[in-house]
């Protein structure tokens, strides 16, 4: 066996699926990877193997306190992996009845979202962002649009204003990068949300923050805060990546770019293809083996970390034909993970992503990439492949609907 492949080298590769194929040839469906120098984990690439670990919490725990490399000091307390992998007292770090208790407020919060009202709010956010750069005839549709839309939309649900939303955005970018500034970004992120929580405890409002404070399944301020952390952070990074990857696809792939000139495939088709090929979370941390076991022909030791290779599992040749035309409308992908910890917010995420993509394409006639397609590269992260930038040119924008100018 060769040395373990760094996880970040997969997400930064121009051909991650080629890397997965090479790993499958060498390892099978469960491959050894490197999280940071000297810290290894199993990357679960098989569709069936991924379902096995996500549906069996009695053997594969979400509780990172079971991670042997952290227990024995191999992973330093100030590691850049911390914000994404260390245990938190929230729904992500719990199993069984405790997980179900902490999950209910999230499910109830998502159910309480008024979809028509949210769509109008997202449309207004998109229009305001586009208006800020429309006069230039050029923009970066990641920095100036894709990463701002979901953050501002989700922040508004929790009662944050635009300035607080943008500050959250900067903190989250550091957190998901898992680099030297990730711990500081995580601290600032929680401070901003804690300030909102304390303000709503003193003066409730019609928002999700107040709803979490009043929820009978959340017993302490820390549980309320951590529920806010999960919903905001998960919704932000993943939806940003989904929007950016869908815009990239529609601007570079003739099957979709033709849609701008009356072609066959549209926004929903592009959204679905991204979920298969470049899902919002490329690699999802993590499960921890509670005893020695075997998975995909590999001997997994108690305390080993297992990373969910969501993009790899979607590309598993045992379930994926490789023919996009034959899979239009197929949503059997694992982009949202599976089992008890599957994403609870896929409906509002799709609403935000579809509205953002559709609004940009409608409001920016003649929009085209300002660089070659091969120059669109992901920003550094072992977890996601969100494009670092998406520079575009366009002609004079159309006015917003109802604008008489």
UniProtKB/TrEMBL annotation:
Organism annotation = Streptomyces thermolineatus
User: What name is this protein filed under?
Assistant: Cytochrome P450
Which PANTHER family does this one have?
CYTOCHROME P450 YJIB-RELATED, P450, PUTATIVE (EUROFUNG)-RELATED
Q: Which SUPFAM superfamilies did the record assign?
A: Cytochrome P450
**Domain of life from the UniProt record:** Bacteria
Family (UniProt): Belongs to the cytochrome P450 family.
What Gene3D superfamilies does the annotation carry?
A: Cytochrome P450
Question: What taxonomic classification does the UniProt entry list for its organism?
Answer: Bacteria, Bacillati, Actinomycetota, Actinomycetes, Kitasatosporales
